[in-house]
């Protein structure tokens, strides 16, 4: 069965939330507090995704599926920042499908979506400083690291963080120059 891509809808919130929570547990240790990651982040993510997908104005969420099963997703908020453009707020690929090109395909599709639907032609995202694999991936697609900042606490609750972890702003000033590393 080939990999299929489609826009998410409200009915997808449960499976998107489950993948998001699993990805955080696997990749955000050290930056996010263990008590938060080992707690009920499934409920937290379900609430977030139920709201996002029920009211998608100004956003787009693209799913990647094999045989009807979610293997990855990307979410963008159009024209989020006057300087940096549209915010890629989430990119997550199921751990069993990492390094298969799904992330690259999702990013290429969201770059095209930004080009088609946003007012501006730039996009950016934040990546944890500790996540060097993701940083290399974004750099390979043509992003530049333009800024370092402190990670904002999930849900605005500072107890959900381990200290003051850092994140990096990765930016694509022109999505028409997005480098699909799978080509």
Automatic annotation (TrEMBL):
Q: Which SUPFAM superfamilies match?
A: Acyl-CoA N-acyltransferases (Nat) (SSF55729)
GO CC annotation terms, alphabetical: ribosome
Could you list this entry's UniProt keywords, alphabetically sorted.
Acyltransferase, Ribonucleoprotein, Ribosomal protein, Transferase
Instruction: Look up the signal peptide feature and give its range.
Output: none
User: What's the domain of life for this entry?
Assistant: Bacteria
GO MF: acyltransferase activity, transferring groups other than amino-acyl groups
N-acetyltransferase domain span: 3-175
Q: Which Gene3D superfamilies match?
A: 3.40.630.30
Tell me the protein's name: Ribosomal protein S18 acetylase RimI-like enzyme
Originating organism: Kribbella steppae
| UniProt lineage | Bacteria, Bacillati, Actinomycetota, Actinomycetes, Propionibacteriales
């Amino acid at each position: 069965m080939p990999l299929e891509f489609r826009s998410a809808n409200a009915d997808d919130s449960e499976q998107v939330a489950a993948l998001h929570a699993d990805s955080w547990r696997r990749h955000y240790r050290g930056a996010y507090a263990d008590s938060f990651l080992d707690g009920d982040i499934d409920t937290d993510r379900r609430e977030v995704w139920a709201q996002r997908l029920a009211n998608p104005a100004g956003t787009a969420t693209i799913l990647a599926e094999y045989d009807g099963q979610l293997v990855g997703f990307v979410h963008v908020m159009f024209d989020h920042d006057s300087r940096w453009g549209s915010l890629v707020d989430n990119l997550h690929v199921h751990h069993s499908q990492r390094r298969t090109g799904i992330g690259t395909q999702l990013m290429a599709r969201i770059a095209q979506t930004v080009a088609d639907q946003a007012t501006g032609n730039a996009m950016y995202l934040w990546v944890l400083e500790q996540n060097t694999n993701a940083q290399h991936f974004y750099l390979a697609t043509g992003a530049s690291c333009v800024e370092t900042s402190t990670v904002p606490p999930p849900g605005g609750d500072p107890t959900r963080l381990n200290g003051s972890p850092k994140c990096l702003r990765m930016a694509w000033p022109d999505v028409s120059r997005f480098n699909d590393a799978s080509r």
